[in-house]
Amino acid sequence: MDTHDISAPSRAQSWHTADKHPKQRHPRSGHPGVGLTHDNARHTARFTVIGNHLAQHPELSALAIGLGVHIQSLPAGARVDIKTLAARFPEGTTRIAAALRELETHGYLRRERHRIPDGRIVTRTTSCNQPGHRGETAPAHAPATPKKPKQRTPRKPLPAVPSPAYPAPALLQAATDLLAGLRRHHPDLLLSACDTAHLAPGVAAWLERDIGPTAVRHALTADLPPEGVRRPAALLAHRLAAQLPPPPPFRAPAPPPAVRQPLQNCDGCERAFRAPAPGLCHDCRTDLPEAA
Asked: Is 185 among the domain residues?
């Protein structure tokens, strides 16, 4: 990645003569002192060759260009995850993550996830100083070649999610509100309306199984990759399907409580007895068979 070139001619030589003649007119503007001039010194150690296709990229943001230059200047094995870069630069993790995605979109970075022998999943980052030349090392003096237009690969469909047995509108609305609020807990979990509609039935299936919103939110946001989430909707869909809890155990409905009649005073003997309305107690009633 670092290229030491002590034989490269200095571009500053063409401007040294202009320093000796301060009244010399700029070759393009026709006015003295107009436009950029360079006061260059020849590098003989600790320098990196950066292509103008990166330094003057028409679509990358200034932060993305700066990060791209910084990453290309680092030695192999250096850490370039979001937290490390956020600790190095004043920008926060959200802006750093967005700039890395820009570089990845335009081919200056490749981030691939691998499972290491102890079972953990790590992300390996590859810096590309010539997008489109995978696995090749361009010579330091290679002439600039026209950049071929990149074709975007079609988006992979999202994994299927479970569905609730009774998709009531209130249940789906609660699931949609939970998904829309995930970005307040983790900035990378910003979902589009289309992705939210795809994931809402899966969240509703969890809520239907007596899993509270707090527990669902924890299951979806716990142990996220430290380097950021590239496809948040795909990650959430996988977790909703793979970690779906079983239905709650069946509980037979409890029998209704026994009706306890209020106390009444017998109209005959004035003894207390339980009955729905005032009247005679069992002993004073003459209409019963045993009283005949």
From this structure: yes
- Do 1 and 95 lie in one domain? The reply is yes
Count H helices and E strands in the chain, helices first. 9, 4
- CA-based angle 88:91:96, to the nearest 5? 85
Mean pLDDT of the 88-99 span = 91
* Confidence at residue 286, expressed as pLDDT on a 0 to 100 scale: 75
Confidence of residue 282 (pLDDT cuts 50, 70, 90): confident
Nearby residues of 43 by Cβ (< 8 Å), 6 or more positions away: 5
Q: Which structural domain range is residue 231 located in?
A: 169-242
DSSP 263: E
Quick one: 199 and 83 in the same domain?
A: no
In contact, 274 and 261? CB cutoff 8 Å: yes
Q: Is it the case that residue 119 has pLDDT exceeding 60? A: yes
Number of domains in the chain: 2
Pair (1, 138) in one structural domain: yes
Percent of the chain with pLDDT over 70: 79
Query: CA-to-CA distance for 70 and 57, rounded, in angstroms?
Result: 15
Q: Which residue reads 């609020």 in tokens?
A: 181
- 83 domain-assigned: yes
- Report the alpha-carbon distance of residue 36 to residue 124 in Å, rounded: 40
User: Is a pLDDT exceeding 90 seen at residue 35?
Assistant: no
